[in-house]
Design a protein that fits this description.
By secondary structure, this protein is an alpha+beta fold. The protein folds into 2 domains: 258 residues, PPM-type phosphatase domain (Phosphatase 2c, domain 1), CATH 3.60.40; 40 residues. Helices cover 35% and strands 24% of the residues. The protein starts with a strand and ends with a helix.
Length: 324
């Protein structure tokens, strides 16, 4: 098969390191594996969980055979069991990871996921289908107990209902969701996978618009840039793959961005630069140094005066003894 793939990524402005990881590989059977995992929780061990999840998912899919949707489901179940056994058995919180996976076999794209990382299918600048987030608020919206407008104002916006890990080994396994049909790709169709750093800040309409005609590399950069300009509160990862028909190669280019706290908005939106700092005074002009010198001078004068008084007293005593 021939897939042209680009990856864009930037860490969140408040993150010391990124907790997003991605998958991009050709499996032994010739199918292409695309994926995004977003680590979470666990007393800052989200990156450990997502890195382990990526390794386990790829390991299982490399070794498995059979019906593609079942392979994806079993890979997520395997990763969930292993992450819980290795990272959640005791102490140090309950780290976990989302996962959005697409297995491309010939012109068919099979999709499975757990959590709020997404997969999109785009054709001719239009969104044909995307995965539904496994979030508490999304479930309440589907039940009709909450409107989308109310959900946007909720403090529970990031509570997810399914994930790899995030629970003790003895608890129920994750329930991955599978599409009941593959996406039948035509030349020029695009697959987009992303973490919630993009999905939370960029609408479906904007995703469609920005990926409509631009090369996949430029589309990746434009989407990540838009998320950063809107705050970049979370790690942002975007994978875009364009199906180019049957062919021998899966190739990709990667476009990392600087950390969001180093990102600059367009010049017209920039705040004016702060005034230059006052020059640092030389050591001899600093107040604390002057006070120290003044104190030392007073001490020397006191010692000198004391010595002079003692000397005068001794001389007076000697003169008194010498008098007849």
């Amino acid at each position: 098969m021939s897939l042209h793939v680009a990856i864009g990524h930037a860490p969140g402005v408040a993150h010391l390191h990124s907790e997003d990881r991605w998958l991009l590989n050709t499996l032994p059977d010739g199918s292409a594996l695309l994926g995004v995992c977003d680590g979470m929780g666990g007393m800052g061990r989200g990156a450990e969980a997502s890195a382990l999840a990526v390794a386990l998912l790829e390991e299982h899919l490399r070794e498995s055979e059979g019906f593609a949707p079942h392979r994806l489901r079993d890979a997520i179940l395997f990763a969930d069991q292993q992450v819980r056994a290795r990272l959640c058995a005791q102490g140090n919180g309950l780290p976990g990871s989302t996962a959005a996976l697409v297995l491309v076999s010939g012109p068919l794209a099979h999709v499975a996921w757990a959590g709020d990382s997404r997969a999109y299918w785009l054709r001719g600048g239009a969104l044909r289908e995307r995965t539904a987030d496994h979030k508490l608020l999304e479930a309440l919206i589907q039940m009709g107990t909450l409107t989308r407008e109310e959900a946007e104002r909720s403090s529970n916006a990031h509570v997810i209902t399914r994930a790899i890990g995030g629970r003790r080994p003895g608890e129920e396994p994750v329930d991955p969701e599978l599409l009941d049909h593959p996406w039948a790709l035509a030349p020029g169709d695009r697959l987009l996978l992303c973490s919630d750093g993009l999905a939370d800040l960029v609408s479906d309409e904007e995703v469609s618009s920005l990926t409509a005609s631009a090369p996949v590399e430029e589309a990746c950069q434009a989407l990540v840039r838009l998320a950063l300009e809107r705050g970049g509160h979370d790690d942002t990862t975007v994978v875009i793959a364009e199906w180019e028909g049957e062919g021998p190669a899966l190739f990709h280019t990667e476009h990392p961005f600087p950390p969001a706290d180093q990102w600059s908005a367009p010049p017209q939106d920039e705040a004016p630069p702060p005034p230059p700092a006052a020059p640092t005074a030389p050591w001899s002009a600093r107040p604390e140094v002057l006070l120290m010198l003044a104190g030392a001078l007073v001490l020397l004068l006191a010692i000198g005066l004391g010595g002079w008084l003692v000397l005068q007293a001794v001389q007076d005593a000697q003169q008194t003894e010498a008098a007849p």
